[in-house]
Write a structure and sequence with these properties.
heterodimer; A: 760 residues; mainly alpha; 32 helices; 6 strands; B: 256 residues; alpha/beta; six-stranded mixed β-sheet; 25% strand; globular
C-alpha cells in the first residue's frame, strides 16, 4: 500500500521524456503555437469550413446586391422614367372605328417648342403611326424656360426632389376615347373643341377624360393642367407685352420645395444593416469550428486522450479559441472583401454609405469584426464546451443566434444612441459603434468603452468555457452530473483562479459603467455618499462574494497581510510625491494634443469639481481618499493574486495596472496613461510588501492631495499650467525616499509561491 | 509503480442517493508487470483507470503513479502514463504522422527523438505503410494500432490499456498482444482491462477481479484457482457475474 514516503518521494525509473524542468515561458508559448497550428490545420482541411469561408460569401453578396436593387433601394430611386399615355380622338375615317387600336403619333417638334395645344392639334391631324416615338417632356420644359415669365412647370419641381428624370409622355389616337380610358389603355383622353367665333382665334375647350379613382390619372391630369396653365400664361404675357403693360401675367407665383426625410436617417438604417450582415456571416464562420473542436471532439473520442496529456486545459482551450477566432475573422475578411467588391461594382457604395466606402472605413469595420469575433467565439466555446455532443451543441447555438439578432436589429433604429447601458450591452454596442463609424460621429471614449467591455465579456466567456472544457461532467456525462460543474471547490484556494477573476471583472465593468453614469446625475450633496457606496459594492462586496463562491482564502486571496510599519509612511510619502509627476504628465499630454477631452467634457469636469465645493472640504477630500483606498482590495488584492498565481510578478503588476487604467479612462480617456502608471506603482508596492494595506494608504493620500488641490484651485485637474519647479524637486526627493524605503522594508516574503499553477 | 489505496468513487443519482462505482479499492502494480483488471460491464474498471490518470476526482482514497498523487499532481502522473481506450478516436483531418508527432509534442518529446520513436513504433506496430494517410480513412484495426502508437510515443513507464483489442480482427489482436509482451520486457507497469479472458490468462501476471466496484479476488492465476475453486478465468468470471453477492456478500452497490 502507498505510504507517506512513497507519496512524497517520486520513484526512480525510466520516465520516458518526462521533462518537469522545462517550464520556461518560451517553449510553453511555442507549444501553444503548435497547438493552434494543429487545430487550424484540422479545421481548415474540413470541406464544411471551406464552404462557409469561401463559397457562402461568393454567392451571398451578389444575391444581396440584387435584393438591394430590387427592394431596399426602390424607395430611393422610384422608377427611373415614368411613362404617361394620353389619347386624342382619331380623325373620322381613319383607322377602324370603335375597335381601332391605339396609334402612337409623333409630335416632338411642337412639343419641343412648348406649344402643347399645337402639338395636340398636329397630332390630331396625323393619321396612323408616325413612327417618331415618344417625346420627352423635359424638352417641352426646356423650351418654356427660355421665357422669363414662364411659370415653373410643376413636374420639374417634383423631379428636382425625388425623380431623377422627367416623365415621358406618349400620345396616341383612339377611335373610342372613353373606352380607351376605362380599359386603362391610356391614362388620359383629351377631346379638343374649338369655341372661337372668328377663324384664327385661339379659343378652345379641352375635355379631359380620366378614371376618377386612378392616382396615376390624377398625376397626368396635374401635368396637363400645369402645362396648359403655363401655355395660357405665356399667351397672356404676349398680349400684355403687345399692349405695353409691364405687369407679368401671374402676380403671385408658388414655388414648391419638397424635402425628403433626413438623408442620414436613410443612410444609417442601411449602413447598420451592413455590419449586421457581416456579423451574421462571422457567426456563421465561427459556429462550425466551435462545435467541431469541442463537442465534436468529445463525440469522436479524442477529447479524453487530449485531456489525458499533461497540458493545461486552459492552454488546450485557448488554442481552440484562437483557431475559432481565426476562422471567424477569415470568414469576416472574405465577406468584407466580397462586400466591398460587390458594393463598388454595383454602384451601391454612395447610397449605402453616404460618402462611399473608404479604405479607412473598411479597416475600422474590420477592427470591429475582429473584436466581435473575439467576443462571439468565446461565447460559442462556452456553449459548445458545455455540450456533450454535436447535436446538443447545435441545439444550444440556435437560440443564441436568434438572441444575437435582436440587438443587431435594435441597432438599426436611428433613435438609439451609443451611451449608458447601450455602450456596454454586448453586440448592440458593436452595431451602434459601426453605425456611428459610418455616420462619422464615433467618439474615441465611447469606442474605448465598447472595446474594453467587449473584450471583458470575451475573457469572462472564455473563463466559463475553461470551467466546462474537458470537465468531468462533460467528458463522462454518463457518470457525472451537471451539478459537478457548479459545485464549490472541495478545498479552499489561496488565490482566485484567473478565470474566476476575469469573470468577476466582466461583472464589475458594466455595472461600474452604468452606476458611474447614474451617480454623475445625482445631486452634488449625495454624490459623495453614492461614490463611496458604488466603490464599496464594486471593488469590495462583489469580489468578496466571488471569493466566497470560489472558496478563496481572504487573507491570501485579497493580500490582507500585515506589512512592516515603515512601509506605511513610505507609502504615504509616495502617494503625496506621485501627484506632481502625474499632473505634469497630463499637462504634457494635453499640450501635445494627446487629449481626448472635448470642450464639452472639460466644461462638465469643471462643473463637477465646482459642485463639489458646495461640500465641506473634509467630506469632499475624505470621500476621494476613501474611494481610492477601497479600490485596492480588487485591483491589487483579488485580481493581482489571480494573475500572480499563473505568472511572474511583472505580469501581475502590469496586468492589474492596465485593467486599473482602463477602468479610470472610461469617463475621461486622458487618464489611461497616468492611471496605468499609478497602477504600476501600486502593484509594485503590493508585490514588495506582500500586502494591499500600504497601497491603500498610498492611493488614499494620492487621491486626497489631488482633490484637495482641485478643491481650492480654480483650474483643478483640467489645468494646463505647469507646477512650480520646487514642487517637482520636492516630489522627486519624496519619490526617491519612498521607493528606497519600500525596497528596503518591503521584503517579498513570496507568499505567492505556494499558489497553484494553471488550472488543469 | 502504480499504487491504489482505498480508492472510492461515488456518483450522485438523479433521484437522490448515489451510485458507488468503485468501492474501497486497493492494489499495486510493479514495473515489468502486466496486471489484469477484470470484471463484467459496470464493475468499475474504466472508472478506476480514469481516477488513476487524474481524469476523475476520487470521492475518497488515493491513487499514485511513480509516487505522484493523481489528484494532487495530475500533470506529473499524465506525463508517465500512456492511455489506450477502445473509445479513443483519432483526428480525422490529420495524417497518422501528424497526429503522432502532435501527441509527442503534447508530452514535450524533443522533435528529433519523436521522429525516431515514430519510426520505431511504426515498424513494430505495422503502421509504417499508412503514416501519410489521413486518420479518417483508416480501418478499425489500423486505428487501434495508431492509438497504441499514440499512447507509446512519449515512452511512458506506465500503460493503461482499456480493452485495447475491442473490435480488432485476429491479426490486429495478435499485433497488440505481441506488443504487450514487449512492454513487459521493457519494464513497463501495465494495467489491462479486457473481456478476452484467454488473452488475459496468457498476458497478465496477476489479476484483480472486480465486481460492483469491489475487488473480490486478487492474485496470480494459481492463487485465484485456489481461492475460487475454478480452473479458468472464464469460469471465475461467470461465477462472479452470477453469484457476485456470494463472493462479495457485503457489497452494497447503491446506498440511499
Amino acid at each position: 500500500m502507498m505510504g507517506e514516503h512513497e507519496k512524497h518521494t517520486p520513484a526512480a525509473g525510466d520516465p520516458g521524456w518526462v521533462d518537469p524542468g522545462n517550464r520556461s515561458p518560451g517553449p510553453r508559448l511555442a507549444r501553444l503555437g503548435r497547438l493552434i497550428r494543429k487545430e487550424l490545420c484540422e479545421i481548415l482541411r474540413d470541406r464544411r469550413t471551406i464552404f462557409t469561408l469561401v463559397l457562402m460569401p461568393l454567392l451571398l453578396y451578389p444575391l444581396l446586391s440584387m435584393a438591394f436593387h430590387q427592394f431596399l433601394l426602390a424607395g430611393f430611386a422610384h422608377e427611373p422614367v415614368t411613362e404617361y399615355r394620353i389619347a386624342i380622338p382619331a380623325p373620322p375615317g381613319r383607322g377602324e372605328p370603335e375597335t381601332a387600336p391605339l396609334v402612337q403619333v409623333g409630335i416632338d417638334h411642337y412639343l419641343a417648342l412648348g406649344n402643347f395645344s399645337r402639338a395636340l392639334r398636329a397630332a390630331a391631324a396625323v393619321s396612323g403611326p408616325a413612327g417618331a416615338g415618344p417625346f420627352s417632356a423635359a424638352a417641352v420644359f426646356a423650351g418654356w424656360r427660355e421665357l422669363d415669365e414662364a411659370p415653373v412647370p410643376l413636374l420639374r419641381l417634383a423631379s428636382a426632389s425625388s425623380r431623377e428624370q422627367p416623365p415621358r409622355v406618349l400620345l396616341f389616337t383612339a377611335a373610342n376615347l372613353e373606352e380607351a380610358v376605362r380599359s386603362r389603355s391610356v391614362d388620359l383622353g383629351i377631346r379638343v373643341r374649338r369655341t372661337g367665333d372668328r377663324p384664327g382665334d385661339l379659343a378652345e375647350d379641352w375635355e379631359v377624360l380620366y378614371l376618377r379613382d386612378s392616382p396615376r390619372a390624377q398625376e397626368v391630369l396635374a401635368l396637363v393642367e400645369g402645362q396648359l396653365t403655363a401655355a395660357n400664361a405665356r399667351f397672356l404675357q404676349r398680349v400684355l407685352r403687345h399692349l405695353d403693360v409691364p405687369q407679368r401675367p401671374s402676380p403671385v407665383r408658388v414655388f414648391r420645395t419638397p424635402l425628403g426625410e433626413t438623408q442620414t436617417a436613410d443612410t444609417v438604417s442601411l449602413a447598420a444593416l451592413v455590419p449586421l450582415i457581416l456579423i451574421l456571416m462571422t457567426i456563421t464562420g465561427a459556429v462550425y469550428p466551435a462545435i467541431d473542436l469541442t463537442a465534436g471532439e468529445r463525440e469522436r473520442g479524442t477529447l479524453e486522450i487530449l485531456v489525458a496529456a499533461p497540458v493545461p486545459r486552459l492552454a488546450l482551450l485557448f488554442a481552440k479559441y484562437v483557431s475559432v477566432v481565426t476562422v471567424a475573422v477569415l470568414t469576416a475578411l472574405v465577406n468584407l472583401v466580397m462586400m466591398t467588391v460587390t458594393v463598388q461594382l454595383s454602384g451601391l457604395g454612395d447610397r449605402v454609405f453616404g460618402g462611399g466606402l473608404t479604405a479607412l472605413l473598411v479597416v475600422q469595420v474590420f477592427g470591429l469584426l475582429l473584436l466581435f469575433a473575439a467576443f462571439f467565439s468565446a461565447v460559442l466555446l462556452t456553449l459548445t464546451s458545455f455540450a456533450r455532443s454535436f447535436k446538443e451543441a447545435q441545439a444550444y447555438l440556435i437560440p443564441l443566434m436568434l438572441v444575437s439578432l435582436a440587438p443587431g436589429l435594435l441597432g438599426m433604429m436611428p433613435g438609439l444612441e451609443l451611451t449608458g447601458l447601450n455602450a456596454v450591452t454586448p453586440l448592440l454596442n458593436i452595431v451602434l459603434l459601426a453605425r456611428d463609424l459610418f455616420g462619422g460621429k464615433a467618439e474615441a471614449g465611447m469606442a474605448a468603452v465598447v472595446v474594453f467591455s467587449t473584450l471583458g465579456y470575451a475573457v469572462a466567456a472564455l473563463s466559463v468555457a475553461a470551467r466546462f472544457f474537458g470537465a468531468e461532467a462533460v467528458l463522462y456525462s454518463e457518470q457525472s452530473g451537471w451539478s459537478d460543474l457548479f459545485r464549490r471547490p472541495a478545498r479552499p484556494r489561496p488565490a482566485p483562479t484567473p478565470s474566476g477573476a476575469m469573470l468577476t471583472l466582466a461583472v464589475i465593468f458594466p455595472v461600474y459603467f452604468v452606476l458611474a453614469s447614474l451617480t454623475a446625475r445625482a445631486a452634488p450633496e449625495k454624490q459623495a455618499l453614492l461614490q463611496v457606496g458604488v466603490t464599496l459594492l464594486l471593488f469590495v462586496v462583489i469580489p468578496l462574494l466571488a471569493a466566497a463562491r470560489g472558496r478563496v482564502e481572504l487573507g491570501s486571496g485579497f493580500r490582507l497581510r500585515g506589512a512592516s510599519w515603515v512601509a506605511f509612511p513610505a507609502a504615504a510619502l509616495l502617494g503625496v510625491s506621485l501627484f506632481p509627476p502625474v499632473y505634469e504628465l497630463l499637462v504634457f499630454l494635453r499640450n501635445h494634443g494627446l487629449t481626448f477631452l472635448g470642450p464639452r467634457h472639460e466644461e462638465l469636469l469643471r462643473r463637477v469639481i465646482g459642485e463639489s465645493r458646495t461640500l465641506p472640504a473634509l467630506i469632499a477630500v475624505g470621500t476621494a481618499a476613501l474611494t481610492g483606498a477601497l479600490e485596492e482590495p480588487f485591483f491589487r488584492g483579488y485580481l493581482f493574486s489571480a494573475l500572480r498565481s499563473v505568472g511572474r510578478p511583472a505580469m501581475a503588476v502590469l496586468g492589474s495596472a492596465v485593467v486599473f487604467g482602463l477602468f479610470h479612462s472610461v469617463s475621461w480617456f486622458d487618464r489611461f496613461v497616468p492611471s496605468t502608471l499609478m497602477g504600476v506603482v501600486l502593484g509594485w508596492v503590493c508585490w514588495r510588501t506582500g500586502s494591499i494595506l500600504p497601497g491603500m494608504l498610498l492611493h488614499a493620500c494620492y487621491n486626497a492631495l489631488w482633490f484637495l488641490l482641485a478643491y481650492y484651485q480654480q483650474t483643478g485637474s483640467t489645468g494646463s499650467d505647469h507646477l512650480p519647479p520646487e514642487w517637482l524637486a520636492a516630489a522627486a526627493l519624496g519619490l526617491v525616499i519612498g521607493v528606497g524605503l519600500i525596497r528596503f522594508v518591503g521584503q517579498d516574503s513570496n507568499p505567492d509561491k505556494s499558489l497553484s499553477g494553471l488550472e488543469s | 509503480m502504480i499504487e491504489v489505496h482505498r480508492l472510492t468513487k461515488r456518483f450522485p443519482l438523479p433521484g437522490g442517493g448515489e451510485l458507488v462505482a468503485v468501492n474501497d479499492l486497493s492494489f499495486s502494480v510493479h514495473a515489468g508487470e502486466v496486471y489484469g483488471l477484470l470484471g463484467p460491464n459496470g464493475a468499475g474498471k474504466t472508472t478506476t483507470l480514469r481516477m488513476l490518470l487524474g481524469l476523475l476526482t476520487p470521492s475518497s482514497g488515493q491513487a499514485s503513479i511513480a509516487g505522484y498523487s493523481s489528484s494532487e499532481s495530475p500533470d506529473e502522473v499524465k506525463r508517465r502514463v500512456g492511455l489506450v481506450s477502445a473509445s479513443a478516436g483519432l483526428y480525422q483531418g490529420l495524417t497518422v504522422r501528424e497526429m503522432l508527432l502532435f501527441f509527442a509534442d503534447l508530452y514535450a518529446v524533443p522533435p528529433a527523438a519523436a521522429r525516431a520513436e515514430l519510426e520505431r513504433l511504426a515498424r513494430l506496430l505495422g503502421v509504417a505503410e499508412f503514416l501519410g494517410q489521413r486518420c479518417g480513412t483508416l480501418s478499425t484495426g489500423q486505428r487501434q494500432r495508431v492509438n497504441l502508437a499514440r499512447a507509446l510515443i512519449h515512452r511512458p513507464p506506465v500503460m493503461l490499456l482499456d480493452e485495447p483489442t475491442l473490435g480488432l480482427d485476429v491479426l490486429g489482436r495478435q499485433i497488440v498482444n505481441e506488443y504487450l509482451d514487449h512492454l513487459r520486457l521493457e519494464g513497463k507497469a501495465v494495467i489491462l482491462t479486457t473481456h478476452h479472458l484467454d488473452e488475459a490468462e496468457r498476458l497478465c501476471g496477476r489479476f484483480g477481479l472486480l465486481h460492483q466496484g469491489r475487488l473480490v479476488c486478487e492474485g496470480t492465476l494459481a492463487e485465484l484457482r485456489d481461492s475460487t475453486g475454478c480452473t479458468t478465468l472464464t469460469e471465475m468470471f461467470l461465477k462472479l457475474s452470477h453469484v457476485g453477492r456470494a463472493l462479495a456478500p457485503d457489497a452494497d452497490k447503491v446506498t440511499r
